[in-house]
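Possible race condition, two jobs.
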Amino acid sequence: MITKHPIYQDFPEHADKIKVLFHNNDEFQVLLNSYAELDNKIYKIETDEELAMDDELSHLRKDRVFLKDEIYTFLKNS
């Protein structure tokens, strides 16, 4: 099933912390915005709204995992 992967859904236990950090920490805001933009791009490719080669899609998915790891690390250390 093709779906978007909102960060709140992946880390529901950190929902309050995500909101606070998003509004009070510029670095976290950049991370979260980058993640959302990338997730949206992947979704558009997966739903055939945009075209991409398989290796490009694979690379984008790896980038999304990397950003998600960065966000989780930020949440854990805050």
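Job #2 (started ~2 s after job #1):
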Amino acid sequence: MNTLATHGTNAGPQSLYGTMLGTALASLPPVLRRVHRAEGVHLRGTLSVRWSARGWLRALMRLSALPRPAAAAACLVTISPEPAGERWHRSIGGHTVASRMRHARAGQVTERMGPLAIVLATRVDGAGRLRQASRGVSLFGLTVPWLHVLASERALDADRYRCDVRIWAPRLGYLLRYDGVLAIREPEPEPDTHLESVE
């Protein structure tokens, strides 16, 4: 499905989340609607990144491109629309995490990061928070039934929201968690090169 197609009787491009959530998108607070708009967005903020306390897991995670543990990691996020969905580029404490999101079915998106694919059931709760929970995880096409992902977004004001992402497994607990506050960062205006100098 082309996620930039119009939805219902509304004219203009439709965002990935607008296509997936339908009328529920309108129940999101304004800042979250701006984050998931069709035109894309730039975000800036600070995240707390925590890894599992298990030594052997931490040793394995050091071999990955995952963001490193930090009490206050600088974070930049760019969400860019694509013909079939969205591209997310995250820089967390200097470590890049890039992914692509595609519409799976009503209320679900699939996020892909290299060989890892996560199907995320997505809903808006009664308090206007965006909540996601994995309904399937695969690596190189093989199902990983013991790995789970939870994510949420909660509006703070007109420009800021709190995000919380957790990756966990039964008996192992949390492998990775990062949370913090992100703010919408409007693009810098381009200098006007047509202005004549005034003597």
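The chain has three helices and eleven strands.
Logs attached separately.
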